[in-house]
Amino acid sequence: MFHPLRLIKRIIYAALFLAVIFGIINYQALLKQAEYYFYQKYPKAEVVRTILEKPTHEEEIPKETRLIIPKINVNAPIIEVENSQESTIQKGLESGVVHYPGTANPDEVGNYFILGHSSDYIWRKGDYKEVFALLDKLEVNDEIKVYYQSKEYLYRVVDKVIVVENDVQVLAPTSEPTISLMTCWPIGTPLKRLIIKGRLVE
After folding, report:
1. Beta carbons within 8 Å of 92's beta carbon, 6+ residues apart
2. Nearest-CA neighbor of 27 among 129, 96, 125?
3. Exposed, middle or buried by CB within 10 Å (0-12, 13-18, 19+), for 5?
4. Which CATH number is 54-200's, of 3.30.1440.10, 3.40.50.970, 1.20.1250.20, 2.40.260.10?
5. 70 pLDDT exceeds 60?
6. Full-prediction pTM beyond 0.85?
7. 67 within 8 A of 152, measured Cβ to Cβ
8. pLDDT digits (tens, 9 = 90+) for 144-198
């Protein structure tokens, strides 16, 4: 005999089980989101040492290519990869964020396109698996810094968009020096892509 209440219970248990698994897999990225929320709501709280209280970078200009986003405390190497194959990019993401091959460099007119994880499986290698977990917190005029060939390039955010996974228009060249930061969104899913666009400050 069919029991609708029993079916509903099973659905609820299955949903709770999946939620727990999702939380375990993405706990580092979700923790960053929670810390950011708590810091914004209780900025004077002494009991929480949030990621925003740590220094963002050294005073001297680093010799390696790096991405610095002070607002969300991102400080990551920018990795150059040989090609745009998924396996090659995933390997590069183990060591930092990845400059997408074929897009502009900071000292050129065009679209300097950077990829980074918002979250990744806990069993995968790498220290940057949630480097872009707080990318959605950036707003217009927030700073993005790139250190490239011993020079600092300062960008300011001009736009934030969410696009479908296979939208190749985000890679299109631009008529002025710009930066695009991309990550999977929502956190823990490959459903869409979050794009932060910045313009070079003259």
Report:
1. 79, 80, 81, 98
2. 129
3. exposed
4. 2.40.260.10
5. yes
6. no
7. no
8. 999 999 999 999 999 999 999 889 899 999 999 999 999 999 988 888 999 999 9
